[in-house]
């Protein structure tokens, strides 16, 4: 309340507070986390709207993400061009959706995009197979993986087209009470 | 993304956003599944639209807009202070290595710590601080043993009910006076009402967030296992590998259907199973009853010894500690017996085993607290003690303290020694897991004792606050050094809801009935405390209302008292109203379920 900071203009801070679920203090703290990834690339004065993008390698090396099997997909989904290179806005957006204040529908939308490896707006069998392998460190046999994927499609595919659309996914998430607490990264 | 909002174009979206209130608009923008750049663009457009509209409408109410913005920022700052960075970092480390289920215990502990800080502040400011102004110095000496027994020197301090005066305190002649009797009863009463509301709202909040009606026909076990059980909170490399291994094991088990026992039991086998379950339940309830009887006779014995000759020496003071130690021992050892019983009975799913064990533990703890309350309210209160409330306060103080010590010891033996044994002597045991159920029940038990004790010992929440603080850090250190992450993640989302529900339902409601009986039915002691000489504690309020009747300015207070608080009709009306509202909500939920089913059928066809 009234702490003078010289990184953002008041208008920028208000915009970030209105567009994410973070408070002013959290936004400044996240900015410093972003900057700590590459102090020489990120200026301390954002009022001139610098166009700074950090490459995926730096984002993926954050302690919150470096051991997550889906870190590449997470960074790709939240980056502007889908390549994992993130601006500060993308960075704030990513952690805002993954915070505990984000509502279920928003998280489900982004979770769907994360699990959709080939970006065709459907989670098809190959996407599921990649998910299962990432979740079990490739230790299941291909037959077992295939069996699991078939079961999942059988259970969750409501419109019976052999793959999961966003509606199927959201319908399934509605019935899983754990989703809100597990799809959450604390920063 | 526009299809999600049902808008044909961006202009429609901007237009509709510009016409709703500021709070709604901010929420709508936050919820938009768009990149940050797009959200900021839309926000700018909406703000331009608003300024355009307000220019048409006339001089804008800049005051309101600014006021709303300042209010929101203030609310944000306030929530930041409650969610202090100290807890945030600690909780993050715990969540990162052990996952959300273990984290929920620590979140619950933090919540209870905040509740106790709030209780302590209320009691301290309204009851204790005025008492300091009218205090008489104590003439007893202080020996170190008092910290454990709570008796001796502490008897004549603000720690206990007996010390508080029944006078009207006023420092300045003819100045503002402070009626201690009314202050005591109103503070305790309003505090319990606030607690009730806090618990109700927390339960509703967690329930609405996490309760999903799980229709067994449509519940997708495998899909939710795949998409919803991976805990993104876990960021420690070893823990991630462990989680992957556990998921791998679970999937393999599901595929080979190991857990699904063939449920074709013959009649004989079914009868045998039911007989074993029945026997186990009889054994558990019998143990609980036996424990209660033991505690009851021990307490009566204690009281007799106390009344025969109260000497202030070491031996009799230590003898007072026997009861709390016995109670804590029973509370610690009998649960092991219950879980051994649970292993003997072969449950069909591990979830059933956990539920049954927790239910038995709850029954044990409720019976022990119940028998103690019965002893305090029927035996102690009607005995010819000089100051029975102080004795009850001391009993509760000792119970709380010994329970705290046993909690620390339990951590030491249950986790530290078990780790040593599991890694050096008996390799097959391995590292222990953090037992969430047992620890949560311990917390709820401690909080129940604190709530009961508030009336008799106003500073008890302060002591419990310090105890919880120490327990938090001891448990955290013990967890990080000695335990391994849990193998089976069990219903994480409903955990916080069920903890608060358990806190509300047997614990808080039970405390309310005990306090109710104390305030309305019991006769306070004649020579000590703020209600000395009255026929009941509630009589203080009745007398005050009688005094108020003579002032015309406060007729409305008297009217409220006679027609609302002490009239049965009003409570009937309120209960009827609450039941009607509950029924209406229930019907709405049922209606939504039916609609969801219909929609599903529509999609399918």
TrEMBL record, chain A:
Taxonomically, which superkingdom? Eukaryota
Where in the numbering of this chain does the EF-hand domain appear? 103-138, 144-179
Example of a GO MF term: magnesium ion binding
Cross-referenced Gene3D superfamilies: EF-hand
What keywords does the record list, in alphabetical order?
Calcium, Magnesium, Metal-binding, Repeat
Could you tell me the Gene Ontology terms of the biological process aspect for this record?
Answer: calcium ion homeostasis
* InterPro entries named in the record: CIBP, EF-hand-dom_pair, EF_Hand_1_Ca_BS, EF_hand_dom
Q: What is this protein called?
A: CIB3 protein
TrEMBL record, chain B:
The UniProt keyword set, sorted, is: Membrane, Transmembrane, Transmembrane helix
**Pfam families, per database record:** TMC
Subcellular compartments: Membrane
UniProt topology in membrane: Multi-pass membrane protein
Read off the InterPro entries from this record: TMC (IPR038900), TMC_dom (IPR012496)
Q: Which GO terms describe its cellular component?
A: plasma membrane
User: Does this UniProt record's set of keywords contain Phosphoprotein?
Assistant: no
Q: What molecular function does GO assign, one term?
A: mechanosensitive monoatomic ion channel activity
Residue ranges crossing the lipid bilayer per the database entry: 113-133, 182-202, 278-299, 319-341, 362-381, 396-413, 420-437, 449-474, 495-520, 569-586
Grouped into one coarse class, the protein's main location is: membrane
Give the highest taxon in the source lineage: Eukaryota
**Where would I find the TMC domain in this sequence?**
387-493
User: What family, per the record?
Assistant: Belongs to the TMC family.
Any idea what this protein is called?
Transmembrane channel-like protein
